[in-house]
Amino acid sequence: MADTGAGAPDPLETNTAGSAYMRRAYTLADPDAARELYDEWAASYDDELSGDTQGYVAPVLAAQTVARAGGVEGEILDAGCGTGLVGVELAALGATTIDGVDLSPGMLDKAKATGAYRRLAPADLSRALPAPADSYDVVVCVGTLTHGHVGPGAFGEFVRLTRPGGTIVATVLDDIWDSGGYRAEVDRLAQMAMVEIVSTDLVDYRRGADVSARMVVLRVA
């Protein structure tokens, strides 16, 4: 997995609300460990995160942000789609053309069962994706830019995949927004005139655990 930066806070200081899986997720060392964990977690992931203890509201808030900022009529990539929580919310808002990628085959099986996706494929977001440039009107990434997961370099790949005038919506755990280099990377892309920063508002992420994230909205040049 990508390094989230020197000086980043101890991931175990972030409230996991007693979740053993989340404690493991926040200290992942490499993609193989991540794949193993999420394959194991897939069956209970939705129930655990949607309960009151975690209150994982990021998927619905991100889908609503996509609808406001980029619309749901075009082709959408759900990067790090997991079990399909974001895809389901996008489909409920009228999206009909959603592709999803994720590292975990177990998670992809759950996403397929939702019926929300056109295509699903395995992919490691810390590497370039096997898709042509300018493939999507919207790229959305929720729950992946966090401790032990994918570093800030992913934003450059999201830009590559998004058509000019398209929109990127991504959550970044607030604990590492600055220390992990995510703010600096977003600022760099803006300074290079590759994106316009629409907003980086602080929003609820896992509301039940009082954990927040930045909802990053970028317009691609």
From TrEMBL:
<dbReference type="Pfam" id="PF13649">
    <property type="entry name" value="Methyltransf_25"/>
</dbReference>
<feature type="domain" description="Methyltransferase">
    <location>
        <begin position="76"/>
        <end position="166"/>
    </location>
</feature>
<dbReference type="GO" id="GO:0032259">
    <property type="term" value="P:methylation"/>
</dbReference>
<keyword id="KW-0808">Transferase</keyword>
<protein>
    <submittedName>
        <fullName>Class I SAM-dependent methyltransferase</fullName>
        <ecNumber>2.1.1.-</ecNumber>
    </submittedName>
</protein>
<keyword id="KW-0489">Methyltransferase</keyword>
<dbReference type="InterPro" id="IPR029063">
    <property type="entry name" value="SAM-dependent_MTases_sf"/>
</dbReference>
<dbReference type="InterPro" id="IPR041698">
    <property type="entry name" value="Methyltransf_25"/>
</dbReference>
<dbReference type="GO" id="GO:0008168">
    <property type="term" value="F:methyltransferase activity"/>
</dbReference>
